[in-house]
Amino acid sequence: MGVALITPFKSDETIDFDALAHLVEYQIKNGTDYLVVCGTTAETPTLTEAEKEEITSFVVKTAAGRIPIVLGIGGNNTKAVVEKLQTSDFHGIDAILSVTPYYNKPSQEGLYQHFAAIAKATPLPIVLYNVPGRTGINMTAETTLRLAKEFSVICAIKEASGNFTQIDDIIKNKPKDFMVISGDDGITFPLITLGAVGVISVIGNAFPKEFSRMVRLGLEGDYASSRQIHHRFTELIELLFVEGNPAGVKSMLAVMGFIENKLRLPLVPNTIKTYEKIRLVLDELNIKC
Protein backbone atom coordinates (compact mmCIF):
# COMPACT_ATOMS: atom_id res chain seq x y z
CA MET A 1 0.00 0.00 0.00
CA GLY A 2 1.29 3.37 -1.07
CA VAL A 3 -0.35 6.49 0.35
CA ALA A 4 -1.04 9.63 -1.66
CA LEU A 5 -0.11 12.19 1.00
CA ILE A 6 -2.34 15.18 1.62
CA THR A 7 -0.89 18.66 2.09
CA PRO A 8 -1.92 20.00 5.51
CA PHE A 9 -2.65 23.71 5.57
CA LYS A 10 -2.94 26.14 8.47
CA SER A 11 -5.90 28.50 8.73
CA ASP A 12 -3.91 31.13 6.79
CA GLU A 13 -3.35 28.55 3.97
CA THR A 14 0.38 28.20 4.61
CA ILE A 15 1.71 24.65 4.69
CA ASP A 16 1.57 23.03 8.13
CA PHE A 17 4.92 21.25 8.19
CA ASP A 18 4.47 20.08 11.79
CA ALA A 19 1.29 18.25 10.79
CA LEU A 20 3.01 16.88 7.68
CA ALA A 21 5.88 15.50 9.77
CA HIS A 22 3.36 13.85 12.11
CA LEU A 23 1.56 12.26 9.14
CA VAL A 24 4.79 10.92 7.63
CA GLU A 25 5.79 9.34 10.94
CA TYR A 26 2.27 7.93 11.36
CA GLN A 27 2.51 6.28 7.93
CA ILE A 28 5.94 4.78 8.56
CA LYS A 29 4.96 3.39 11.96
CA ASN A 30 1.71 1.85 10.73
CA GLY A 31 2.60 -0.26 7.72
CA THR A 32 2.56 2.02 4.68
CA ASP A 33 4.98 0.63 2.08
CA TYR A 34 5.73 3.88 0.23
CA LEU A 35 4.63 7.50 0.06
CA VAL A 36 3.40 9.40 -2.99
CA VAL A 37 4.27 13.10 -2.78
CA CYS A 38 2.68 15.88 -4.87
CA GLY A 39 -0.09 13.74 -6.32
CA THR A 40 -3.72 14.73 -6.84
CA THR A 41 -4.57 14.25 -3.16
CA ALA A 42 -1.88 16.78 -2.23
CA GLU A 43 -3.85 19.56 -4.00
CA THR A 44 -0.80 19.94 -6.22
CA PRO A 45 -2.47 22.27 -8.78
CA THR A 46 -2.80 24.86 -6.00
CA LEU A 47 0.84 24.62 -4.91
CA THR A 48 3.60 26.83 -6.29
CA GLU A 49 6.71 25.23 -7.76
CA ALA A 50 8.67 26.43 -4.74
CA GLU A 51 6.14 24.83 -2.38
CA LYS A 52 6.26 21.53 -4.28
CA GLU A 53 10.04 21.46 -3.96
CA GLU A 54 9.86 22.37 -0.27
CA ILE A 55 7.29 19.65 0.47
CA THR A 56 9.28 17.04 -1.46
CA SER A 57 12.53 17.88 0.32
CA PHE A 58 10.77 17.91 3.68
CA VAL A 59 9.17 14.49 3.20
CA VAL A 60 12.43 12.99 1.92
CA LYS A 61 14.29 14.38 4.94
CA THR A 62 11.60 13.26 7.39
CA ALA A 63 11.34 9.76 5.94
CA ALA A 64 15.15 9.53 6.05
CA GLY A 65 15.33 6.48 3.81
CA ARG A 66 12.97 4.41 5.94
CA ILE A 67 10.36 4.18 3.21
CA PRO A 68 10.46 4.73 -0.58
CA ILE A 69 9.21 8.04 -2.00
CA VAL A 70 7.32 8.35 -5.29
CA LEU A 71 7.05 11.87 -6.72
CA GLY A 72 4.20 13.08 -8.90
CA ILE A 73 5.46 14.75 -12.07
CA GLY A 74 3.04 15.04 -14.95
CA GLY A 75 1.22 17.50 -17.15
CA ASN A 76 -0.29 18.24 -20.53
CA ASN A 77 2.83 19.92 -21.93
CA THR A 78 5.21 17.09 -22.77
CA LYS A 79 8.19 19.38 -23.35
CA ALA A 80 7.78 21.00 -19.92
CA VAL A 81 7.51 17.61 -18.17
CA VAL A 82 10.63 16.34 -19.97
CA GLU A 83 12.59 19.48 -19.03
CA LYS A 84 11.58 19.09 -15.39
CA LEU A 85 12.70 15.47 -15.40
CA GLN A 86 16.03 16.43 -16.94
CA THR A 87 16.79 19.37 -14.63
CA SER A 88 15.35 18.51 -11.20
CA ASP A 89 17.24 17.09 -8.25
CA PHE A 90 15.77 13.68 -7.47
CA HIS A 91 17.89 12.91 -4.43
CA GLY A 92 15.84 10.61 -2.18
CA ILE A 93 13.21 9.93 -4.85
CA ASP A 94 12.67 6.28 -5.84
CA ALA A 95 10.16 6.60 -8.69
CA ILE A 96 7.98 9.01 -10.67
CA LEU A 97 4.17 8.92 -10.88
CA SER A 98 3.05 10.58 -14.11
CA VAL A 99 -0.58 11.26 -14.95
CA THR A 100 -2.04 11.13 -18.44
CA PRO A 101 -2.25 14.60 -20.03
CA TYR A 102 -5.43 16.42 -19.10
CA TYR A 103 -7.72 18.95 -20.81
CA ASN A 104 -6.18 18.81 -24.31
CA LYS A 105 -7.36 15.18 -24.76
CA PRO A 106 -4.67 13.58 -26.93
CA SER A 107 -5.25 10.50 -29.06
CA GLN A 108 -3.90 7.11 -28.00
CA GLU A 109 -0.89 7.73 -30.24
CA GLY A 110 -0.41 11.09 -28.51
CA LEU A 111 -0.51 9.38 -25.12
CA TYR A 112 2.04 6.84 -26.29
CA GLN A 113 4.41 9.52 -27.64
CA HIS A 114 4.00 11.59 -24.44
CA PHE A 115 5.04 8.75 -22.17
CA ALA A 116 7.73 7.55 -24.59
CA ALA A 117 9.33 11.00 -24.31
CA ILE A 118 9.11 10.84 -20.52
CA ALA A 119 10.62 7.34 -20.46
CA LYS A 120 13.60 8.60 -22.46
CA ALA A 121 14.09 11.60 -20.14
CA THR A 122 14.77 9.86 -16.84
CA PRO A 123 16.37 6.67 -15.52
CA LEU A 124 13.96 6.62 -12.58
CA PRO A 125 11.18 4.00 -12.60
CA ILE A 126 7.95 5.45 -13.97
CA VAL A 127 4.45 4.63 -12.74
CA LEU A 128 1.81 5.60 -15.29
CA TYR A 129 -1.40 7.10 -13.89
CA ASN A 130 -4.67 6.64 -15.76
CA VAL A 131 -7.56 8.59 -14.21
CA PRO A 132 -10.06 9.52 -16.95
CA GLY A 133 -12.55 10.95 -14.46
CA ARG A 134 -10.11 13.79 -13.83
CA THR A 135 -8.22 14.09 -17.10
CA GLY A 136 -11.02 13.64 -19.63
CA ILE A 137 -9.11 10.92 -21.51
CA ASN A 138 -8.79 7.19 -20.95
CA MET A 139 -5.57 5.38 -21.78
CA THR A 140 -6.60 2.05 -23.23
CA ALA A 141 -5.16 -1.32 -22.26
CA GLU A 142 -3.55 -1.50 -25.69
CA THR A 143 -1.61 1.74 -25.15
CA THR A 144 -0.60 0.78 -21.60
CA LEU A 145 0.66 -2.61 -22.76
CA ARG A 146 2.53 -1.04 -25.67
CA LEU A 147 4.39 1.26 -23.29
CA ALA A 148 5.02 -1.51 -20.75
CA LYS A 149 6.53 -3.79 -23.38
CA GLU A 150 8.70 -1.16 -25.10
CA PHE A 151 10.14 0.73 -22.11
CA SER A 152 11.58 -1.20 -19.18
CA VAL A 153 11.76 2.01 -17.12
CA ILE A 154 7.95 2.08 -17.15
CA CYS A 155 7.40 -0.34 -14.28
CA ALA A 156 3.73 0.04 -13.31
CA ILE A 157 0.40 1.73 -13.81
CA LYS A 158 -1.90 3.26 -11.24
CA GLU A 159 -5.24 2.39 -12.80
CA ALA A 160 -8.19 4.55 -11.73
CA SER A 161 -10.47 4.06 -14.72
CA GLY A 162 -12.81 1.80 -12.75
CA ASN A 163 -13.08 -0.36 -15.88
CA PHE A 164 -12.59 -3.93 -14.68
CA THR A 165 -12.44 -5.35 -18.20
CA GLN A 166 -9.69 -2.91 -19.18
CA ILE A 167 -7.70 -3.48 -15.99
CA ASP A 168 -8.05 -7.26 -16.28
CA ASP A 169 -6.82 -7.06 -19.88
CA ILE A 170 -3.67 -5.26 -18.69
CA ILE A 171 -3.09 -7.80 -15.92
CA LYS A 172 -3.61 -10.72 -18.31
CA ASN A 173 -1.26 -9.48 -21.03
CA LYS A 174 1.38 -7.41 -19.22
CA PRO A 175 5.10 -8.21 -19.04
CA LYS A 176 5.96 -10.35 -16.02
CA ASP A 177 7.56 -7.57 -13.95
CA PHE A 178 5.06 -4.83 -14.84
CA MET A 179 2.79 -3.96 -11.89
CA VAL A 180 -0.87 -2.98 -11.90
CA ILE A 181 -1.80 -0.80 -8.91
CA SER A 182 -5.33 0.14 -7.91
CA GLY A 183 -6.01 3.87 -8.01
CA ASP A 184 -9.33 3.50 -6.23
CA ASP A 185 -9.63 2.46 -2.57
CA GLY A 186 -13.13 1.08 -3.04
CA ILE A 187 -12.17 -1.55 -5.63
CA THR A 188 -8.72 -2.46 -4.35
CA PHE A 189 -9.79 -5.78 -2.86
CA PRO A 190 -11.47 -7.14 -6.02
CA LEU A 191 -8.56 -5.91 -8.17
CA ILE A 192 -6.11 -7.80 -5.96
CA THR A 193 -8.10 -10.98 -6.57
CA LEU A 194 -7.57 -10.35 -10.31
CA GLY A 195 -3.82 -9.84 -9.91
CA ALA A 196 -3.23 -6.22 -8.95
CA VAL A 197 -0.29 -5.78 -6.56
CA GLY A 198 -1.78 -3.17 -4.25
CA VAL A 199 -3.09 0.39 -4.12
CA ILE A 200 -2.03 4.01 -4.02
CA SER A 201 -4.50 4.95 -1.32
CA VAL A 202 -6.33 8.02 -0.08
CA ILE A 203 -7.93 6.45 2.99
CA GLY A 204 -4.49 5.18 3.96
CA ASN A 205 -3.72 8.74 5.11
CA ALA A 206 -6.01 8.04 8.05
CA PHE A 207 -5.94 4.25 8.38
CA PRO A 208 -2.57 2.94 7.18
CA LYS A 209 -2.46 -0.04 9.55
CA GLU A 210 -5.90 -1.38 8.67
CA PHE A 211 -5.82 -0.73 4.94
CA SER A 212 -2.29 -2.05 4.44
CA ARG A 213 -3.35 -5.17 6.34
CA MET A 214 -6.26 -5.63 3.94
CA VAL A 215 -3.85 -5.41 1.00
CA ARG A 216 -1.34 -7.83 2.49
CA LEU A 217 -4.00 -10.39 3.41
CA GLY A 218 -5.34 -10.22 -0.13
CA LEU A 219 -1.89 -10.66 -1.65
CA GLU A 220 -1.31 -13.66 0.62
CA GLY A 221 -4.53 -15.24 -0.67
CA ASP A 222 -6.49 -14.82 2.57
CA TYR A 223 -9.46 -13.36 0.74
CA ALA A 224 -11.96 -13.94 3.54
CA SER A 225 -10.00 -11.83 6.05
CA SER A 226 -9.15 -9.21 3.43
CA ARG A 227 -12.78 -8.96 2.34
CA GLN A 228 -13.86 -8.43 5.93
CA ILE A 229 -11.67 -5.31 6.21
CA HIS A 230 -12.83 -4.16 2.76
CA HIS A 231 -16.47 -4.33 3.84
CA ARG A 232 -15.70 -2.57 7.11
CA PHE A 233 -14.50 0.50 5.23
CA THR A 234 -17.01 0.54 2.35
CA GLU A 235 -19.24 3.26 3.81
CA LEU A 236 -16.35 5.45 4.86
CA ILE A 237 -14.68 5.20 1.45
CA GLU A 238 -17.92 6.30 -0.21
CA LEU A 239 -18.09 9.32 2.09
CA LEU A 240 -14.47 10.19 1.27
CA PHE A 241 -15.33 11.02 -2.33
CA VAL A 242 -18.97 12.16 -2.21
CA GLU A 243 -17.86 15.82 -2.21
CA GLY A 244 -14.51 15.35 -3.87
CA ASN A 245 -10.97 14.42 -2.94
CA PRO A 246 -9.20 15.42 -0.69
CA ALA A 247 -12.11 17.15 1.08
CA GLY A 248 -13.31 13.82 2.50
CA VAL A 249 -9.99 12.59 3.84
CA LYS A 250 -9.17 16.03 5.23
CA SER A 251 -12.47 15.98 7.14
CA MET A 252 -11.54 12.56 8.46
CA LEU A 253 -8.06 13.63 9.53
CA ALA A 254 -9.50 16.76 11.16
CA VAL A 255 -11.94 14.65 13.18
CA MET A 256 -9.00 12.45 14.21
CA GLY A 257 -7.01 15.51 15.34
CA PHE A 258 -4.20 15.35 12.75
CA ILE A 259 -4.85 18.55 10.80
CA GLU A 260 -6.92 21.70 10.44
CA ASN A 261 -9.78 21.16 8.01
CA LYS A 262 -8.41 23.61 5.44
CA LEU A 263 -8.21 23.37 1.64
CA ARG A 264 -7.13 25.85 -1.02
CA LEU A 265 -9.62 27.23 -3.52
CA PRO A 266 -11.15 26.14 -5.77
CA LEU A 267 -11.50 23.20 -3.36
CA VAL A 268 -13.55 23.70 -0.21
CA PRO A 269 -14.16 21.58 2.90
CA ASN A 270 -17.02 19.12 3.14
CA THR A 271 -20.45 20.38 4.06
CA ILE A 272 -21.41 20.05 7.71
CA LYS A 273 -23.80 17.23 6.75
CA THR A 274 -21.03 15.12 5.18
CA TYR A 275 -18.55 16.05 7.93
CA GLU A 276 -20.97 14.80 10.59
CA LYS A 277 -21.60 11.57 8.67
CA ILE A 278 -17.85 10.96 8.55
CA ARG A 279 -17.56 11.69 12.26
CA LEU A 280 -20.35 9.23 13.09
CA VAL A 281 -18.85 6.45 10.95
CA LEU A 282 -15.45 7.02 12.56
CA ASP A 283 -17.08 6.70 15.99
CA GLU A 284 -18.71 3.45 14.92
CA LEU A 285 -15.44 2.02 13.60
CA ASN A 286 -13.78 2.86 16.93
CA ILE A 287 -10.25 2.53 15.56
CA LYS A 288 -7.53 3.92 17.79
CA CYS A 289 -4.90 6.13 16.13
Write the layout of secondary structure elements.
Blueprint: E1 2-4, H1 17-29, E2 34-37, H2 49-63, E3 69-72, H3 78-87, E4 95-99, H4 108-121, E5 126-130, H5 132-135, H6 141-150, E6 154-159, H7 164-173, E7 179-182, H8 188-194, E8 198-201, H9 208-219, H10 223-232, H11 234-241, H12 247-255, H13 272-285
Parallel strand pairs: 1-2, 1-8, 2-3, 3-4, 4-5, 5-6, 6-7, 7-8
Helix pairs in contact: 1-2, 3-4, 4-6, 6-7, 8-9, 9-10, 11-13, 12-13
Overview of this structure, please?
This protein is of the alpha/beta class and 289 residues long. The chain has one domain: TIM Barrel (Alpha-Beta Barrel). 47% of the residues lie in helices and 12% in strands. It is built from 13 helices and 8 strands. The protein has helices spanning 17-29, 49-63, 78-87, 108-121, 132-135, 141-150, 164-173, 188-194, 208-219, 223-232, 234-241, 247-255, 272-285; strands spanning 2-4, 34-37, 69-72, 95-99, 126-130, 154-159, 179-182, 198-201. Strands 1-2-3-4-5-6-7-8 form an 8-stranded parallel barrel, surrounded by 6 helices. Helix 8 links the parallel strand 7 (179-182) and strand 8. Helix 11 runs antiparallel to helix 13 (272-285). It starts with a strand and ends with a helix.
